[in-house]
Specification:
single chain; mainly alpha; 6 helices
Length: 168
Amino acid sequence: MLGRIGFIWGSIGVIGLLLVSVVRLSNIALEFFLYPAHLWHWLALVVWIIFMAYTEGYKGFQKAFSPRVAARLIWLQQHPKFWLVLLAPLFAMGFIYASKKRILISYGILIMVLGFVAIAISLPQPWRPIMDSGVVIGLFWGATATGWHILMAMRAGTSLVNPELPYL
């Protein structure tokens, strides 16, 4: 029962975090349509959305993050520990109880994202909505891919992906 709770809480927590960001950033992205845009703005928007869909959505989420999240949640369901169940979203994302390499990568990506956020909030119109449009596409793709991988792992009851647990 405890493992099932951790699986559900981790799934909802990770997907919810991604979707909250999608909704919040969508409001900013839609501001693009409030300002007069030149042809190069539209071109930048299309190129950026395609770039972010591929790099963040497909390569980052669908091929790496999402399968690992599902593998870690399956492991948690089968090996529940109270403190990991309590912190299941953080566990699923690899911030705690992971290999040293996974923890370094997870926190490195977090720091990189925070740096991009700091840059993005200082961008003038219409460049901030353009940037946020690509991020919204990538995050939505990520939330969808994560949900899909979780469903597939739940259905199979296992995962072939390395959950990158700590080696004790």
